[in-house]
Each structure stands twice: as C-alpha cells, then as structure tokens.
Design goal:
Chains A, B: InterPro entries: Homeodomain-like_sf, HTH-type_TetR-like_transc_reg, HTH_TetR, Tet_transcr_reg_TetR-rel_C_sf, TetR_C. The structure is a homodimer of 196-residue chains. Chain A is mainly alpha-helical and 196 residues long. In chain A, 74% of the residues lie in helices and 0% in strands. In chain A, helix 1 packs across helix 2, helix 1 packs across helix 4 and helix 4 crosses helix 7.
C-alpha cells in the first residue's frame, strides 16, 4: 500500500465515521426534540462536525431527515404474492404498521412539515416520492408481465395512487383506523370504481 | 322590540363584525408572513380582538386556518357530468388549479405543516378531511344510484382515494405536472388496475 492510498483510506474511514455520527445525532435530536428542536446547527454541535460537512452530503434539512427516515426501514418490501389486490393490501398495511410502530412515522411527518415552507426540502421529498412511486410501479410491472394488471396502466401513476392513500392517512393522523378500510381501498384500486 | 332583544341583536352584530375582522386579519397574516409569522396572538393584535374571543370560535390554529381556507373556495364543486371517469378527472383538475391559482394552496400547506406537530390542529384537519371524503362520496352515490358505480364500493373510501391523490400532489410540490397525469389517474380509479 502506498503512503497516498493509505492516507486516502484513513480519510475515507473518517468520512464514514463522521457520516454515522451525523446520522446518529440527527436521529437522536428529531426523536427527542421534534422538528422544533431540529436544525443543522444542533446536529453539527451534537455530532462534533462542521455545518459545511453536513451540507456537503445533505443539501437541506429535508434531505438529512429523509436519510434518517430511510435508516428506519431495513426490511420494508412491496409484497409480491402474485395476487394484485392482496399485494396492494399488504403493502398499505405494512407501511402503516411501520409508521405506527417505529419512529419512522414521526420522522416522515417532520419531513412533510418542513417541506411546506422550505423549497429545498420540498424538492428533496418530491424527488424521494417520485423514486418511491417508481419503486412500487416496478413491482406492479411484474403483475403486468403476468397479465393480471392491464396493459394500459401507467405503473408509476398507480404507485402514486397507492402511496398517496397511505401518506394522507399519516398526515391526517388517521393511522389507527381499521385494517378493513385498507382491504376495501385495495379492492377498489384493483377492481376499479365503475360497474364492470 | 324589547330592550333585551335589541341589546342581543347589537351584540350579535358586533360578534359578526369581530368574526369578520378576525378572519380578515388571519388571512392577511398567513398570506404576508406564512405559518412562521402566524399565531393566535398576532391575529388578535391585528384584529383588535381578545385571544379568548378567537379561541371561543376556533379552538386551534389549525381550525382558524381551515376557516380561512374555506373562504378561499366559493365555487368549487364535485362535477356531476354523469360520466364517472370524467367527473373524477374534472374534480382533480379543478382542485389542483384552485390550489395553484389562489392563496388556498399555500394556506392548505400551512395547515398540513401545523398539523404535524400540533395535535389539536391534526384533529381539526382530520375531521375536516373526513367531511370532504364524505362530500365527494355523496356525489359518487349519485353514480351508484344510476348504476355506473359498482354496488360494493364504499363511497367514502373512494372519496378518500381520490382526494388523497390531489393532497399528495400539493404537499410534495407536484402541482405543475401535466393534466395528462390526472386523466390517467382518473381512468385508473374508474376502471381499476387489474385486467378485466
């Protein structure tokens, strides 16, 4: 190993440590103090990092909050049971339970609040959600290939319809409503509202 | 007219004047200063009213903001053309244009932001949205009576699906996306995602 590459490697390792320290500090602050106590300055102080270091990786409060949010969901998948209606139901139920039973719901709500007055954070959550809609859409494409999702469906828009239902439940504080609602919504998404 | 009834009537009139002054002041403040500058105290000062007077009518910041929001939409109806898919499309387009072209969008975004950390405001917007879902649902019931909306549909949940799509567009700052998206979403809501 040359002197240069060793130095780079130590630098890279320090960077990773610093990144982790920032994410840990940000998670602790948002959990303990909520959005009102959350600022890049407070995170920098707690992580013993410089504000420019934080901004280098996350250009807005919203972007940093989304990074923490992502860390909260190690194992959330779009189900792929092969039955369209069931997959939509399981996805809605899984996401809503995740929001109810982990700090993820509160963190996501903070991101939404922040994004309503901070254009950089609005851009961050808008881009993030576009990715999520496409991610749901990719699973729906499997159904399209199997022939149980209609050919003319725009799978990204379908992803947006399904995710928007869950997001609205979260931000309107309606997560506690019965699972039967989610089953009915899944059926209505799959079969459509009109008389066949 | 007795002395008592005259006094009551003057009192009632003063109440209405005071109510209007409060709503005007609240509208001016949220439009000029946004949520960061909006407080019951600031509204009271500008309207020359007491804070208890405001709280008597609107128990939370969210409730007062919802009252202003409602004043912004004098003529927004759920369309009833008789064609289900077209009605859903026109509703989505009308609501999104209304949010884009009046202060209503910014005010609604402030209410959402406020509701993420203030439980009283969360309750206010949750109740308000439940009413809106039922209001859309009532129009969908006409379609059910005519036979073009399936019998097994829960019209309130259908209202929630449609409204949630629009609300998510607003809060993710995606109102500028093309109308074609809304037409596609309306078709997918009406016909369903699955192969018929």
């Amino acid at each position: 190993m040359t002197e240069t590459s060793r130095r780079t490697s130590i630098g890279a390792q320090r960077n990773l440590q610093s990144r982790d320290a920032i994410l840990d500090a940000a998670t602790a602050i948002i959990t303990e103090a909520g959005l009102a106590g959350f600022s890049i300055e407070a995170v920098a102080r707690r992580a013993r990092a410089g504000k420019p270091t934080i901004y280098r990786w996350w250009p807005s409060k919203g972007a940093l909050l989304l990074a923490i949010y992502e860390l909260q969901k190690p194992d959330l998948r779009m189900p792929d049971t092969g039955k369209l209606e069931e997959d939509i139901f399981l996805f809605l139920k899984g996401l809503i339970n995740h929001w109810r039973n982990s700090p993820a719901g509160a963190i996501y709500r903070s991101i939404v609040a922040e994004a309503q007055s901070n254009p950089d954070s609005a851009l961050a959550i808008g881009n993030y959600m576009t990715d999520r809609y496409e991610w749901i859409g990719a699973i729906l494409k499997h159904h399209q290939q199997r022939g149980d999702l209609a050919d003319w469906i725009d799978t990204d828009i379908a992803g947006e319809q399904i995710a928007s239902f869950a997001v609205a439940r979260l931000i309107m504080d309606r997560l506690e409503r019965p699972d039967e609602d989610l089953r009915q919504a899944a059926r209505q998404f799959a079969k459509g509202l009109r008389t066949q």
